[in-house]
Amino acid sequence: MIGIIFDMDGVLYRGDRPIEGAGDVIEFLKSHKIPFVFLTNNSTKNAAMYREKLQKMGIEVEEEKIITSAYAVAHYLEKHFDRGNLFVIGGKGLQKEIEAIGWPIINIEDAGSQWKDIDYVVVGLDTKLTYEKLKYATLAIRNGALFIGTNPDTTYPSEEGIVPGAGSILAALKASTGKDPLIIGKPNEPVYEIVKEKLEADEIWVVGDRLDTDIAFAKRIGAKAIMVATGVNTLEDVERSDVKPDLILPSINELIEYLRVALNIRNL
Hints:
Layout: E1 2-6, E2 13-14, E3 17-18, H1 22-31, E4 36-40, H2 47-56, E5 66-68, H3 69-80, E6 86-89, H4 92-100, E7 120-123, H5 131-142, E8 146-149, E9 155-157, E10 162-164, H6 166-177, E11 182-183, H7 190-198, E12 203-208, H8 211-221, E13 224-228, H9 235-240, E14 247-249, H10 255-263
């Protein structure tokens, strides 16, 4: 059985604008009982928040089908590390997921010199990033705190165009600390631990818009790599890259016809 992993930003929508055909594809998968999950490197929202966003676009999915890098980080910490104090750079989604596992978070507002007591610095996309947050994270990491990143995406597609992503913040902290972060999200394998718990399939397809995360992730886990040209990377980028998708589609809208042919589904 085929199971499909969908990226979200640049595949299902750009900003708050749905990409044409996204809802039709999801309904097609449901009607033909083809398993799927959404896997996003964007940690600014949790599954409940993303479900609400998708509902506003006419796409109905259960929260259980939405996996974020924030969720993956929280559960990876809980499974592989000892409980400790955290400093978090990120949006509400990342904060909520860390709070859900019950580990203590030290906030910048009342941090003082507590950076000496920080065990983990967790960094995702933060649209309210300040110098103070970078300074505090730098002090904690240089003092020995484990440096963890939700995802390496240096940019992401918005309604306005391509804007800075979590990877840009990680790059700043790497420059100020000399430390490389442990990155949980795509294309790294830690997030695949979570996916395997939620997607039962003999063959996996990954549908994404980025070569360095989505397509590289597909190659790393032995999945079919399908790139759509509605997000970050272009056909020119593919020509220049060593990471090559197995299939390129103009958008998610064309996936239904490809599925019909691949699975021999008649057009009723």
